[in-house]
UniProtKB/TrEMBL annotation:
Source organism: Pigmentiphaga aceris
Domain of life: Bacteria
Annotated SMART domains: AAA
Domain called ABC transporter: residue spans: 17-265
Protein name, per record: ABC transporter ATP-binding protein
Amino acid sequence: MSEQINSITGTSDAPLLSVTDLGVAYDGGRIPVLSGVSFSLAAGRTLGVVGESGCGKSTLAQALVQLLPAGAVRTGGRIDFNGRELTALPETALRDIRGKDIAMILQDPLSSLNPLLRIGTQIAEVSQRHLKLPRRSAWDRARELLASVRLSEPAQRLREYPHQLSGGMRQRVAGAIALAASPKLLIADEPTTALDPTVQVQYLRLLKGLQREHGFSMVFITHDLGVVANICDEVAVMYAGRIVELGTTADIFKTPAHPYTRALLDSLPRIGERAGSLRAISGQPPRPGQVTGGCAFAPRCPHVMPKCREASPTLLASVAADLSLDSSVASSVASSPVPSSPASTATTRARRSLAACWLTQVPAEAHA
Ligand SMILES: Nc1ncnc2c1ncn2[C@@H]1O[C@H](COP(=O)(O)OP(=O)(O)OP(=O)(O)O)[C@@H](O)[C@H]1O
């Protein structure tokens, strides 16, 4: 599976991060919240993880650093990072990796910053701990990091406390802390959601610039496809705890295959529309534990077929769905071992992405 996914990203290098068939469940393992999640990410690339609220994005972020909340357990799968299987490491080894090789930026920096400690102390302690810098050098580095996240008067900011800064400034401090030990992977969980739109744009530019400079990979979690378009090389679209479409940002935006991806794109405001006029997708996503068999999106899908309610499709090679195809043509695309005539037409639009949808799947040989 990961070999196939790598071929989508267009990178031949061994991935920095590889997630295979990851499952997580709450309530001591009884309520599945992530199922069969697989993807890989090469060095220096950014994967956007996108989906509506409650689809499992933050749970995935927590699972990546092996910091699931109480009551949640990994039910299967593995996570490989930088040549090591994270899911097999003891907690002591994980503690060395978190904050050093893998850093996180969360939506609300107040929840990650200590209100009682000066900004400088909080940044310096990361490089003291993980890079073993002496205190003086760690403070010098903290000042440089504050300058690199474009915080004005860095020397003065070092002596301030989180409450003395605006939300945008605090998020820059969170960025400086995340970069303090030169991580290979940055996981950013909705880092711009709480910021004003203009500050959001500045912050995304900053992150992209820092990534170019330092070369880290990013998993960027967001419900906002507009943000994805700005910052991500690849996109994983999540629905009800599964990845339903995975491909390059260009493919996902130009030729979305999964009806849910289309619905997300259709919900974006169009040029000329009033700001805030986001069209909601009708219906609600299922809550964890409510998914019973079949495709979880079937109850909301305008292209649902009987098969969709019977069995859950896995993430397989897809064509850019011509959703005007009637369902008989669509099912021939899905089930024919050698593409028949209408399917051949469809395979001319075959592209390098995966989708978990009966309507859009084609046999692997059609991609040759
Ligand atoms: N500690 C918990 N115990 C039980 N269920 C939980 C817990 N934390 C989250 N959940 C449920 O797991 C599902 C996935 O939550 P998660 O926070 O990962 O989704 P999300 O996509 O990040 O949503 P949002 O965008 O709103 O943050 C949700 O239905 C949520 O209610």
